[in-house]
Design a protein that fits this description.
By secondary structure, this protein is an alpha/beta fold. Helices cover 38% and strands 14% of the residues. The chain has 16 helices and 12 strands. The chain starts with a strand and ends with a helix.
């Protein structure tokens, strides 16, 4: 049994874009399973380990400062020795193709076939990869990964969570008294991503103006907790259920699969919903929806046009978005516009319930 080594991003939302190409990538390189290396450990990553195509997930934990850089150096060296010992036949590197520590791992790994994306300014790229992929930075993420393959157009839909759902649906139910029909709000955005949050007062207006719709807040981590608290707080919404950081990731996926629709920021939850075929509306501002947009996976998007948006570029540098003094691309998006789109999304489900 041959294993392909894949250096990929840490966010589960990004993996939703990568996953459609993975089975074809394994077949192209005559491999059976994949060993994934990620830069950070995030809550959603446990979903990958449940998929039968994944044999192992390794984390480098790259958040370093001061003396911790020494610990990181030892982790990096340990991973390099592990890679050389395992003798992987193929290494594929995703968005991390321009990051020095991953380029060094690729260069020194001894793996005969090393595939990575071409970044003109990246150091010693020619030594790191003996197959470099040239692709236009303006194309969508799914299609970026399609360019890693021969004779694959990126249109194949591959179930990322179905097997895991089947295994855990019964024993991993949520012990919360929820209504039969609800809309999931993905109001957070994960690690240090407050710059792409739609404002709490807008989510409040959405909930308040639609008292006949039940909303469930989902997410995890401190940033999402702060956002959820700002939305639900002391407002006493009878149609809002705050489950942020109160479910396992798999419980969250089960709730997403049961929702009439999912609405939220550019984050992992809407991407998961889109892969599950749940009607999804993603709110965009700093992010370029034409590149990172979950609409590539089958969802819908909403944004407003402002002169400085989008400011989050394809090289994954949020500097401009973080420093933005006004965030007009989010502040000026009217909750009434979002509410109209939400009702359009759930209309088929409501009609089905009425029958």
């Amino acid at each position: 049994m041959k294993t392909l080594l894949y250096f990929g991003p840490s966010g589960i939302g990004d993996w939703c874009f990568i996953w459609p190409s993975l089975p074809a990538l394994l077949e192209q390189h005559d491999c059976d399973r994949v060993h994934i290396v990620m830069p950070y450990r995030n809550k959603g990553n446990e979903l990958l380990a449940l998929n039968p195509l994944v044999c192992e997930v390794t984390y480098l934990d790259r958040r370093v400062s001061g003396v911790s850089i020494v610990a990181y150096a030892f982790r990096w060296l340990g991973l390099l020795l592990k890679l050389r010992r395992r003798r992987f036949p193929v290494l594929v590197v995703s968005y991390l193709s321009n990051q020095v520590d991953f380029l060094l791992l690729s260069t020194l790994s001894g793996i005969p076939v090393r595939v990575g994306r071409d970044f003109p300014s990246a150091p010693f790229l020619e030594k790191a990869f003996n197959r470099r992929i040239h692709c236009d930075s303006s194309i969508g993420r799914v299609h970026v990964h399609a360019s890693y393959l021969e004779n694959w157009d990126g249109s194949t839909k591959v179930a990322m969570f179905d097997d895991a759902l089947a295994l855990t649906q019964e024993q991993d139910s949520v012990n919360v008294d929820l209504p039969d029909s609800f809309v999931v709000l993905a109001a957070g955005g994960g690690r240090e991503a407050c710059w792409r949050f739609w404002p709490p007062q807008h989510y409040q207006a959405l909930v308040r103006s639609n008292p006949d719709i039940n909303f469930v807040l989902l997410g995890g981590g401190q940033d999402d907790l702060d956002q959820a608290s700002a939305i639900s707080g002391e407002h006493g919404f009878k149609n809002l259920y705050d489950l942020v950081n109160k479910t396992t990731m798999m419980q969250g996926v089960i709730l997403i699969s049961r929702a009439m629709a999912v609405v939220g920021n550019d984050t992992g939850i809407p991407n998961i919903a889109a892969t599950l075929g749940v009607p999804t509306l993603v709110i965009y501002g700093p992010s370029n929806f034409e590149i990172t947009g979950a609409h590539i996976l089958g969802s819908e998007e909403i944004h407003i046009q402002v002169p400085c948006s989008p400011c989050f570029d394809d090289r994954q540098n949020p500097k401009n978005a973080v420093r933005c003094p006004h965030r007009n691309c989010m502040q000026m998006l009217d909750p009434d516009r979002v509410a109209v789109r939400v009702r359009d999304l759930i209309r088929p489900s409501v009609a089905g319930l009425a029958e």
